[in-house]
């Protein structure tokens, strides 16, 4: 891939991540797949790329008072448990199944957003 395309994709991922709350990962997965990665690798790389973007966005939102640590804190333990379970399931799930689940998740999210 050309460096300028990668740079534009990175800019888009970062922008969406900050605007939509980790939405950059939704862009990253199809981009990484288009670059030839399999579903598992694309999803894992998406997390690795969006982690620092999410940390920066969270810092900005926390420092500007858009959210508090107590708002977020109640989701940390369940989120960590879900992340651990998801990591284990990713290893054991066929790419085709992951691809289908990801597509359904995108469709569900789109319908929910349109419904308001």
Compact summary:
The protein is mainly alpha-helical and 116 residues long.
Number of helices in the DSSP assignment: 5
As a whole number of angstroms, the C-alpha radius of gyration is 15 Å
**Total number of β-strand segments?**
0
Mean pLDDT: 85
What labels describe this entry?
5 helices, 116 residues, mainly alpha
Q: What secondary-structure arrangement, pairings included, does this model have?
A:
Elements: H1 3-20, H2 24-34, H3 39-63, H4 69-92, H5 95-115
Helix pairs in contact: 1-2, 1-3, 2-3
Question: Would you give an account of this structure?
Answer:
With 116 residues, this protein is an all-alpha fold. The chain contains five helices and no strands. The longest helix is centred in the middle third of the chain and has 25 residues, at 39-63. Helix content is 85%, strand content 0%.
């Amino acid at each position: 891939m050309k460096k300028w395309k990668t740079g534009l994709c990175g800019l888009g991922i970062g922008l969406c991540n900050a605007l939509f709350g980790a939405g950059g990962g939704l862009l990253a997965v199809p981009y990484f797949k288009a670059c030839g990665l399999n579903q598992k690798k694309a999803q894992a790389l998406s997390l690795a790329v969006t982690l620092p973007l999410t940390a920066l966005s969270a810092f900005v939102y926390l420092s500007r008072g858009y959210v508090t640590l107590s708002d977020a804190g109640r989701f940390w333990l369940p989120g960590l448990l879900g992340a651990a379970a998801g990591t284990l399931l990713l290893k054991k799930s066929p790419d085709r199944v992951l691809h289908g689940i990801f597509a359904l998740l995108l469709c569900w999210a789109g319908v929910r957003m349109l419904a308001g």
